[in-house]
Amino acid sequence: MSRIDALTQAAARRLASRTSRRSLLGMLGRLLVGGAALPLLPVSRVARAAGGASGGAKIDDPESCDYWRYCAIDGYLCSCCGGSASTCPPGTSPAPMTWVGTCRNPADGKAYIVSYNDCCGKASCGHCMCNRNEGDRPPYLPWVSNDINWCLGGENKIAYHCSTAVLVGVADK
Amino acid sequence: MSRIDALTQAAARRLASRTSRRSLLGMLGRLLVGGAALPLLPVSRVARAAGGASGGAKIDDPESCDYWRYCAIDGYLCSCCGGSASTCPPGTSPAPMTWVGTCRNPADGKAYIVSYNDCCGKASCGHCMCNRNEGDRPPYLPWVSNDINWCLGGENKIAYHCSTAVLVGVADK
Amino acid sequence: MARVGAPRLAALALALVVVANFAPRATAADFVAEQATTAKLADGRHRVWIHDLVGIGYAKATLLDADSGRQLAQVDTGYLGMELELSAKSPRFYSAETYLSRGFRGTRTDVVTTFDATTLRPTGEIEIPAKRLLGLPTSAHASLLDDERFLLAYNFSPASTVSVVDLERGAFVGEIEVAGCALVYPLGPRRFASLCGDGSLLEVTLDDAGREQARKAHPNFFDPSLDPLLEKAVRAGDQWLFVSFAGDVHPVDVSASGLTFGAKWPLTDAAERASKWLPGGLQPFALHASSGRLYTLVHQGGADTHKDPGQSVWVYDLATKKRVQKIALDELSTSIAVSPDDAPLLYSAFLGAPALVVYDARTGTRLRAIENAASWPGLLQPIAGDVK
Amino acid sequence: MARVGAPRLAALALALVVVANFAPRATAADFVAEQATTAKLADGRHRVWIHDLVGIGYAKATLLDADSGRQLAQVDTGYLGMELELSAKSPRFYSAETYLSRGFRGTRTDVVTTFDATTLRPTGEIEIPAKRLLGLPTSAHASLLDDERFLLAYNFSPASTVSVVDLERGAFVGEIEVAGCALVYPLGPRRFASLCGDGSLLEVTLDDAGREQARKAHPNFFDPSLDPLLEKAVRAGDQWLFVSFAGDVHPVDVSASGLTFGAKWPLTDAAERASKWLPGGLQPFALHASSGRLYTLVHQGGADTHKDPGQSVWVYDLATKKRVQKIALDELSTSIAVSPDDAPLLYSAFLGAPALVVYDARTGTRLRAIENAASWPGLLQPIAGDVK
User: Fold this and answer.
1) Backbone phi and psi for residue D366, each to the nearest 5 degrees, phi listed first
2) Are C12 and B143 a contacting pair at CB < 8 A?
């Protein structure tokens, strides 16, 4: 299957991503029972996300919002846009300043410092919207705030295109 | 029910509008049988449009693509955007130049000359996309070409917002 | 619909007339040609702006009549536009906006645009430093001070400053440095606050020219480690109400010349905290001024769920600080707002779905959903009804 | 995923380091910090640009790998952007674009932007008169002349002119008036045609500075009353193929110094015409050059269905002018294109649905649908594969 998402499906992504997996099954139930409640959401998407919850999250898939590095990300995943978890798509530039998160890698059990470099210089990619908020704080603590558009690099680097999750350190020894 | 459409439903509108009502039921059948064929189209919308076909088109409803004046329109209906069939929504301006169509009013059997004034100065309204092409010709006959953005009125009047259908004459006596 | 035979030549012949003046051409005795005009903005008791993030792009705001479900008008608010600065005293409103000269590239220009609130046309703009905060919308990114002479916009470059715009003179005044702090909360006609990362509240006083006259840091306003404040505060007359992640209301009274910090009070009791009921969303708080009620959007969640959607609105009487009502929403919600009239409506929208859902705020009855109100619903801004 | 305990202070402490240089901080012996970089554009045998009209707004083009279904990159093409002018000979491409200084208001600026085809970065722009045709996309709105020194853009203000851009000098040269005619069809390195409302074809010859040297009207090329031409022509080497509303191909040979108008030939036989089989759509014709095949998107419709979607692709051998293949599409389609290689893919998209559907052009087998390729799919532009 294609891994490319677009605006018209972002709603489902956001529903899935903005909601903890734990509560998603409950909501899905309500959606399906409700019928007309959220008619525009592609229910198959929600169902798949819910299925992922019972079957195990895709914590090792950089195109999944469940990827372990994305614990404090907010935006379109560059992995779905021609880049990767640590590279910007062609024609865009990584923001020189970033916010950071601390995510635990289930493979080695260690917590890593993740730099969420926005990729800048083009319109929104529009695919794989993902928002997770571990350690996220309001803009008065900007270095840990994922609400901010970090594309602050001057000429041609204002527009937000997508988000990476670059490993820059180990948080615990 | 609300009459407001948005980007995420424009696809269904366009499916309905870009296709003659005659063939829509056939396509709907294919959609439903096909299952995955057009998974993103809100099928309820299509079904409602198809229902309209058997139950009689809404030729007297200015918020319906079937409204008789819209026989050569291409764009968002201003009636759904804060204007009407002959008025632009607040804050926008009618284009001084237009393309024209000739549409027959079923109420009196007469054919009228319709001026399709684009309303200009704001981003797309995004509601009630409608395209019908009676008498439409390519841009080498611009006065009868509905592909053209007629928002040519200079400063602050470039952006296309929605389309009106203004009666400017009677075509037959 | 039958195709009208050979209409093209007639159409072409008419085209020149049409282009010239839409002159009437009443070949039928009773026909009067229409004129293309611009509609007047409709009045209404329950009008509300819904902002559309449009997929993290050029934003727009749509004015809806919540009673009829109709769209009344639209304004464009620029790249990552957040909200409008509505006026309580003039037939204008303002918008702090960002533009790029080549769509999504080129030179950045930030402006404060003035709109005529009746015609919805932009009537002027004042250029400001091209570094206002961009990101997810928050109503504290920019604000009118109380007499509406000055408009403030918070800059993040990543240096933290506040741009001061003199609306009377139509000019940018200058920047005020607010290092370590963020956002702007009006405290009066010449005073504002910013919320600081060390837990303090910074109070800045302006002179009549819009320059900084004094500043005072109020330390230990909150504990950013133990229980940070949501920056999504609401103002109830002379009181700012900041709510913490855990659900404690931190009131700040601005009526005196200084600031009075009231005792914090909880939205939830011990049992509710144990079951992890928390406020959350993009716009989780709304005030109904005349009844003195605070509406809060809550959900059951754990740590770091401060932006999660909710399906419950809990309502508090600010005089007694007690919950007086619970409203169950049918749909997920990230933004709530309440109309200011005495038959108030509760508006609810979810960033992940295009509808605006309307409830009777007093009874909690779901009245209607306005489908496709916005592709990515952001902030909601009710405006006072002006039905005569 | 368990929340990492109290990460914020560590994160804050590290932030300065991160901001400074993303310096490695290998506290685990085997850890090497990553660097945020920009990916190289991936090669591929079947890459195709799909243009996205984005709801009649600021357009973008997305480059897809049709074999893997992956998005490779994106470029932005301005307000109502239509297509890219791809180069056959240089590692660049061009885009005739329109911008407004304030998003959807303000001053209009039209430019020809040069992109590096490897990095996909804009590398320059040439301003042109701010009146290029805006509207539904058509590939004839702008074109490179054959040696790629000059780029032409059709203007509609509503006066009809053509802007000439000298790409070698990086400068706008001037305008050529083409009153009564529209669009640009390259006829060689210094010649172009426009299609005229009176049924003629206008041929214009430029000098080496890009100025008009000569013009010749070729009357009665087609009958705009009885059977107008679709402006959506395709070029097969030295032949332009214009197709009429009814389905007749009008070939124009441009190999000689003049123009040779070939006999028109039908896409459909009498029985098919009687059952109203017609070409239609936004991009209903595609050429596969090496096999000399013309792909046409057809549907059953009546008068004025020239923009209707189709679900059938009929394929013609240009040497014999005979149909050699019929491909049934599973989905509605308004745009088709064929990859230029010898294992060609047929691409299909519908303005009303967000997928790009991929077929084996030789067998007609549906290979895959790339979902959400564009919100409003417009024109498709395959690019030659460059796998070594």
Assistant:
1) -75, 120
2) yes
b (16+ CB within 10 A) / e for D39-78: bebeebebbbbbbbbbbbbbbbbbbbbbeebbbbbbbbbb
- Give the confidence band of D227 by pLDDT, cuts at 50, 70, 90: very high
- Give the per-residue pLDDT at A9: 34
How does pLDDT run across D303-357, given as a tens digit for each residue? 999 999 999 999 999 999 999 999 999 999 999 999 999 999 999 999 999 999 9
CA distance B119 to B96: 10
Hey, is B45 helix, strand or coil?
A: helix
| Partner-chain contact A20 C309, CB within 8 Å | no
pLDDT above 70 for D381? yes
Instruction: At B24, list the tokens.
Output: 């829509």
Residue A56 and residue A64 in contact, taking contact as beta carbons nearer than 8 Å: no
| Beta carbons of D201 and D183 less than 8 angstroms apart | no
Residues in chain B: 173
pLDDT at C59: 98
Interface of B with A (CB under 8 A): 7-9, 11, 39-40, 42, 44
A97-119 per-position pLDDT tens digit:
999 999 999 999 999 999 999 99
3-class state of residue C138 by DSSP: coil
* D349 to B12, B111, D304, D311, D335: CA distances (angstroms): 15, 36, 21, 11, 5
Predicted ipTM of the assembly: 0.89
Write the DSSP assignment of D144-181 as a string of letters.
E-TTSSEEEEEEESSSEEEEEEETTTTEEEEEEE-TTE
A136 labelled catalytic: no
Order the strands of the C171-177 sheet from edge to edge.
C142-144, C150-156, C160-166, C171-177
**Pairing state between β D171-177 and D160-166:** antiparallel
Give the relative orientation of helices B21-34 and B43-55 as an angle to the nearest 10 degrees. 140
Q: Which chain D residues are Cβ-neighbours of C109 within 8 angstroms?
A: 101
Output the six-digit token pair for C278.
Answer: 């928390």
Residue C210 has pLDDT above 50, yes or no: yes
Strands (E), D259-321: 260-261, 265-266, 277-279, 285-288, 293-300, 310-317
pLDDT at residue number D29: 63
What tokens were used for C350?
Answer: 């979810």
Six token digits for residue D360: 């084996």
The whole-angstrom separation of Cα B126 and Cα B131 is 13
Indicate the pTM of the whole model.
0.88
Return d(Cα B108, Cα C114) in angstroms, integer.
47
* DSSP H or E segment with residue A53: helix A43-55
List the 69-98 stretch of D: residues with Cβ below 8 A of C. Answer: 76, 78-79, 97
The chain-wide mean pLDDT, for chain C, equals 92
Tell me if D104 sits within 8 A of A113, measured CB to CB: no
The radius of gyration of chain C's CA atoms, rounded to the nearest angstrom, is 24
Q: How far is CA D366 from CA C148, D44, D51, D65, D335, in A?
A: 62, 20, 21, 16, 16
Considering Cα of B107, then B111, then B112, then B115, what sign does the dihedral take?
A: positive
- Examine the residue annotation and report whether A99 is marked as an active-site residue of this protein: yes
Order of all β-strands in the sheet with D377-383:
D70-79, D58-65, D47-52, D377-383
What integer best gives the mean pLDDT of chain D? Answer: 92
Distance CA D140, CA D136 (A): 11
